[in-house]
Amino acid sequence: METVELARLQFALTAGAHFLFVALTLGLATLVAVIQTRATFSGNPVHLRMTRFWGQLYIINYAMGIVTGLVMEFQLGLSWSGLTHFAGNVFGASLALETLVAFFVESTFLGLWIFGWGRLNKWAHLATIWVVTLTAYASAFWIMISNGFLQNPVGYKIVNGVMELADFGAMLANQASLTAFGHIMGGAMVTGGLFMAGVSAYHLRKRTLEQDFFRKSLRVGLGVALPALMWTVTFGGLSFDTLQPTKVAAYQGSAEDMAKAQADAVAMFGPGDYLPPSGPVSTAAILMMTLWAIMILVVAVSVLLMVFRPAVRRFRVWHWLLTAMIPVPFVTMLCGWIFREMGRQPWAVYGLLRTEDAMSPVTHGQIQLSLIAFTAVFSMLILVNYWLLARQARRGPDAVQLGEQQQRPAELVLTY
């Protein structure tokens, strides 16, 4: 395999793995904020315990996701210096804003939320989780602004062979960024909702003592997943308006369409092969849509079954199916990511910078070594994250340590 292909594979594996953590983090953060809002206004102890239980699962996933994000940023600088040299003056601004939001605002308020149980006023504590949630979406927004620019470069000028930012407003209004951000928002809510529903169904199937707790959680998860699925497919459809012609041709798979797209690209950019690999692009798109159809069917039927209390309590086949659905949105989002990114090839910045020219001057052996190292690290992180989440989810709300001090008698707290 050529050096550039190894570098692409390395970034695909690291970015794809990080994307899995991001999807669940965004979804769970929103759900936890909503549940805590309900608990704060109603004073319902069940919703308070739900906040702590799902909040601890969110923290586990967030912590592991931070590690993968740091590794990915190092890799961007080490392997793709050609990209940062040519276009860094433009999309580097949005990446810098993402770093400020994620590593300063979001992490600071997450720390306040984690250690503020029983110490902060309940309204101040509620505000911290909403700041965490909103800044998480702000972080995703700036990432998609950068990604949308690579897909559909706007608001720039080229000075001495290097891109410079000419219109920040045009970059912010880039439809390729905004529709993708809406698509990601919906996908994250689907991921969080089905994760909550699947874990709840597991406990209902096992007949654990926390039946009321997990019935309420199941209702929340399914109630969020259904509209989120419709939101996601709506923005996915809008995203087709900004697809590159070669990506559309590869998706459709027609020899005639691909020949026309190639001819048009040659006329525009000069001699070269401008078609992305049709097989992976088409397969990823079809699988993404098929899995969406399966999810909407399962979730819609599940929402109807929620009306019948005996089914919620005893329908074990349904419980098993919902638990088995947990990985489906993750696979669906990866398929969408493959379709979006692989379909852009052979461009790093569409129409302006080829992927082979975006690479750093690294040797084949260096890329091989780093690929093995990154793959090993990320595989370990994914396995550890899965083990931690599964262990905590199986233990149930009684094993939660988040906010534990709030449950202690006041006089014990005062003796510290």
Q: How do the strands and helices of this protein lay out in sequence?
A:
Elements: H1 3-42, H2 45-79, H3 81-115, H4 122-151, E1 156-159, E2 162-165, H5 168-172, H6 175-205, H7 211-239, H8 245-252, H9 255-269, H10 278-305, H11 309-314, H12 316-324, H13 328-342, E3 347-349, E4 353-354, H14 355-358, H15 364-395, H16 410-414
Antiparallel strand pairs: 1-2, 3-4
Helix pairs in contact: 1-2, 1-4, 1-6, 1-13, 1-15, 2-7, 2-15, 3-4, 4-6, 6-7, 6-12, 6-13, 7-10, 8-9, 8-10, 10-13
Q: What is the averaged pLDDT score?
A: 89
Treating each run of at least 4 consecutive H or I residues as one helix, how many helices? 16
Largest sheet: 2 strands, antiparallel
Question: What is the percent of helical residues?
Answer: over 70%
SSE string, helix = H, strand = E?
A: HHHHEEHHHHHHHHHEEHHH
Q: Indicate the structural class.
A: mainly alpha
Q: What's the short story on this structure?
A:
By secondary structure, the chain is mainly alpha-helical. Helix content is 79%, strand content 3%.
